[in-house]
Amino acid sequence: MNQHQFFLFSNRIKTISNYFTFAICTILAFTSNAQSTSINGIISDSYHQPLLGASISSMDKTIGTVTNVDGYFELSLPDQIAEVVVSYIGFKSKIIKLSDFEQEMQIELLPDILQMEEIVVSANFNDKSKLESSVSVTTLNAASINQLTPNSALEVLKTVPGVYVNDANGEVGVEILGRGLSTPYFSLQEDGLPSSISEMASNEKFTRDMFIRNDIMTQRVEAVRGGSASVISANSPGGIFNYISRTGKEDFEFEFRNRFGLQANQEEVYNKLEAFMGGRIAQTGWNYAVGGHVRYDGGIQRTLFPHSEGGQLKLNLTKVFSDDLTIKITGKYLNDRVGLNRPTLVTGWNDIVPAPGFNFDNNLVLPDVAFSIADGFRIKEDPSAFKNIRSRDQQKINDRSIGLNMSYNLSDNWRIKLVGKYARKSLIVNHIAEEGGMATIPINSLFARLFSNFDLFFTDLAPMTFGEYQIFDLETNQTLATVNTENLIRGRQPEITSNNLPGNGEMFWALVDNDELKINEFVQQVTLNGQLNDHTLTFGGYYSLASNTRVLNSATAFLTVEEEPRLLGTRVLMADFEQFAQFVPELQPVRHLSNQTAIFNNTSGLHGYNSQVNEYNDLDEITTALFLSDEWAVNENVNIDAGIRYESIKHKGRSGLTEVQDIDNELGGIDGNALTVSDNVYGAFSGDYLDFDVNYSGLSYSAGVNFKINNNTAIYGRYSHSEKLLDALYVQENFTDGEPPTFKPRKVSQAEIGLKYSKQRFGLFAVGYLSAERNIFNQLLVISLSNPDGFYLTPPLSNSANYYGAEVEFNYYLTPWWTIKNILNLSGGTNQDYQVWNTGSKDTPDDDFLVDLSGLPVAGSTSNKLDLSPIDITSVFNFNKRKGTVILNYRRFAEKFANIQQAFTLPAFNLWKMGVMYEINSSMSAGINVNNLFNEVGILRFNGTNDIAGFAENVTTDFIDQNPDKWFKVQKSPGRSYYFTVNYSL
Known about the structure:
- By secondary structure, the chain is mainly β.
- The protein has seven helices and 57 strands.
């Protein structure tokens, strides 16, 4: 068609718009076809396995396609495009010139072994790859998490450099340490929001990992250390561990996993069933994902009841509206009963061995019994109100939450994002208080222990301590030991008249706690994000409210000192008071009780009927924050970011007062029988409160620069400062003259510098850091018979320490069949102005004294400052045209000081894991893992001596010299266990 013909044709159709549109589209299509190049090929991994969903596109991502199930693609590109990029999550991207393309070209991608190109969402307000971020961050995908066969959510962090994970307690109560900072300094998140915001739920019993579980719904974990965390997240200078959930896609997905295990020397069974389903709800545009687990865990240490039972269900719905609005709705239901691994008794400070009659696999918990204990919520209205609890319910956890995540594009450059969650949580903890848990006592001191939780010399009860004490087996009623205490009337010591108790002839004294916490949580964050020239700006606000109600009930129990302790009862055949009344006038009112038997335990074995309701709290924690961040792209290689966060925290509530109750001052108690002593006197909530309303504020800031040398190498530096409010325990003993305590926010400053390098076969991420912590709070609760409350608190101390170290993570892709991953941690620290209390040998503050530890290494330091953990060696093989994987994991625990006074060291040890996985077909795979392959005993924690209030801090070199054969308590690494996993997916 020449120019004249085209002109006539154009004039003819100008009056008919439909034909005009049709003609233009036809011409454009013709022109496009005439000026395009078609390419095709197959994309696979280094094992020649096709990659489904691999992307091939123009460099600006405007034109592209993805591969099918066979890894095949076809793509037409305009002639002006000279290069394409081939990419797939977890693999190194590859740039190919169109001039190099061949017919059905075979394109092989190598793994991005440190995931440097992976986009992370937890380290910045804007999504960036790790190579472009000036933050120390590690990502773990679902496959690598599954290979670890983790029994707990935090166990997956063992492969994160610089993070020390101590899982001696079991599935929850896992402790982490990073850059000198402990667990409360880190934010444990699910999909970008904290799993729990309550600081009351972060004390010694309620740990931060109570409400988070790892299962088939976890897509990946992003682990941010230090850096920008103090600005990105609320009250979390240590870092962020974000567990990101799977979401639904357009196509239907289904996955089922069953993990069966043998633990505790093959005496206990583990079974976990997991399922996931996702896809598109037809004709609605909503994608859904739902999944979770149920599991039975007999325990990694032997007990007389199952360690854990329960599970969780998570779901989310996502929809994109008109490419501008995205809405995601989330829900979660967690209902779990989780056990605790408790210490065992050992001896030998320099060569730790089990104490006589014990072994390293012992788990010193209460036997499987039902207790009746006073109901702290109702006891003021009804003194006889009680509830039944079971010792096997060591931790009962419930979490019901719903969340909303909404993102709206205001323009091409600006976006507003809202995330929020409402949750109702509850915790019930039934266990032995750590400060006196399972302490051994001589039987001739029993008379004092019976009154350890209420007024020792209460007038009406004191005579009941005079006579013959009988210690008996609660189940058989058989008397096992007797003590004559008539001599007390004459001012003499009790005399042991018989002793057939097992073990060393002593008893375990245990303070049994029933701790309940109910929490309502609401959290919401709004961010406005946009670009202004070379700057990406983020403005935002954060609000959270945690309403807590807590009550603590306590009582005393006595048990035999043996591997599987039995409950003991105590009774007194009272003396003939007639013969003493003439010279002890105080005995006149009880002459009628002569030669009768007083029972000190109730029917379930507890002594001192709810002897303390020693904490009753209502606490509202209100946090409001404003933050601002600027990310400046100086050029294509240099990025500078800076952020600031102002945080205001309000603690408002009341602390209930407890007092000794005497049931109308009449001897006999609730049941009216003076000889059943357990209910005669007890502690209870009085109905009166101490009110508090305390405000805190803090300013955090962080700045970093990232220099991308090339597509493989970058270096970065960062400085951060933050203030962290850690404490929220407003119990009555902390008040002074009716005034509530105030806590100093802990100040944390960090400087770090890092190198990132990633080639096709080698990846390196190395970070060096300096960290300073100020206002470290230290205070001890000491069990004290001489105090009417049964305990006293040492004066609070404020300390400081500096930490330093290096975190190195490198992977080497040796061949398509061999991959080596290694983490090297160098860490240390020095106490600055640092003092601790030594509470001496008495139960009074008279012999307490301060110990100055300034200038010494920080608590938990390794003696040689080197920790090599872990090394992963992965081997891949083909059998019958199917891929298999062999994984060998080595982790070294360096020798470290056992306590802050460096009295002795815990020896170094090694742990080996091995796993084999095999793809049976395209839908099914199976594997077997062996943890602690050589069943090595490693001591993870020193828990103090076997004395009441036998704090680890009290042990010094002099104490060891004076007590060379002393028994003490430790927790060990889990023993050898076997797990068999079957995975099926569509």
